[in-house]
Predict the structure.
Amino acid sequence: MADLFDKCAAWKDAQVLKLAGHYPYYRVIQETNGTEVVVDGKRLIMACSNNYLGLANDPRVMEAAAEAARRWGASTCGSRVLNGSMTLHDELDHRLAEFLGKEAAVVFSTGFGTNLGTISSLVLRHDTIFADRMVHASLVEGMQAAYGDTKRFRHNNMEDLERLLANAEPNAGKLIVVDGVYSMEGDLANLPAIAELKRKYGARLMVDEAHGFGVMGPGGKGTGEHFGVHEDVDLIMTTFSKSLASIGGVIAGPADVINWIKHKARALVFSASMTPSAAAAALKALEIIQQEPERRERLWDISERVHRELRGMGFDTQPSVSPVVPVVIGDQALTFKFWRKLTDLGLFASPVVKPAVEKELVRTVFMATHTDDHIDRALEMFQKAGRDLGIIPAERPHTRVEVKMARPGVTGFYSSHDGDTTTTGTQDGGARLEILDVLTQADEPWSRRLSNAAEMITWKAINAGPEEYQQLKELPFKLWGKRRQLPTMLLSAGMNFMARRQQNGSDNQRDA
Ligand SMILES: Cc1ncc(COP(=O)(O)O)c(C=O)c1O
């Protein structure tokens, strides 16, 4: 009989990455002031926080959180519907509705719960969701929990969206769901076209502004404001864990819809409310966002500079037009190597790999509170790591680098993945490395050769297309021939991955 836990014991990806010294997740931050962090006793420049405006470390926000804990206690110990709604939560509902220009709003204790609760309570049998394929996981979770039907359209592909809308049951309630700013690649939803389609087909529109709130549009209201279609966005969602420097989430829209959600969303009704300090921090951050638009300006200045400089060095940063600037690598092993190198040089960035993104990348976000010196040093680190690994050329390319950003004042500009990429020679760099070459690199110490080979086996086995897979199948036997030189661990890692890949025959069919 199968044991439920067998799969957990058999899953070795994280261990193999650790073995190769390339495990990038769950890093423990021992100290932080926002722009710099200490990890493993080493000070690093933080280059991938979502603390866009730097308010999580603003003394006024921190004091508001501390004061609220002293006055209201450490927890509400209850859900909003029964005993967990305090003055702070009520004030936050009202202030956010007012700021966003919507009739009403309700705050949840996380952004994830806001998306889950909103969609699952609103979309019932006979209703249909039309969601971009790249929307955030919390929206996907909401769709899976909803009774209604879900159709996914190709990322930012308006023909595909229109095709789905046109073929839908005319009497079905329709909800279009998109992210305003896509969190990994930094491109924007084409909201003007989406707004037009929503009107044409009588649908409603929900936009997740997690990465747009406080950042996009002249007032920081989000991507709808940036495009001048704020009124067309029926439901605006944002999390408090980014510009709002706290934890929680909000959905804002028509009063009767918010009233429905307040009574029907299980993620709200059956979950404890935000802590008083989290609510107070978000209230203070909202006040500062409204009073200090210069923070947003500084964020855009920094982001534009980083984006232009990285492109000027020869990195691929498309399709971003926002402060989320991806450094696109397009090869898993090389992405992890690049990340490791950046960390060793003193930068905290995040590698993001499939299936979270179409092409592997290192995600960077700088904050309004980074100094020019931070940016100078971070850019030097990117250049050194990129050149050392052959991701960018040793000399700056001569071509003039145009970077278009969707900053306030640049009306209507957006970009998307479709047909809008540059190549940097990155993929060649990764593909040229062959496992047996790695093992015979006489100038490298054995420990390094072995860890490089372990890493390559892992990623090649996971990502191999059908043709490469045929060759890879031979690999354990070739390695076996070298068994006297190789530790047992490496051999069994290679064998395990090959066996798993083999069992997973359907994956190969799909790759084909
Ligand atoms: C686009 C988007 N939506 C929703 C969420 C969830 O928000 P939270 O972290 O508050 O749960 C995130 C967080 O990563 C996000 O990036």
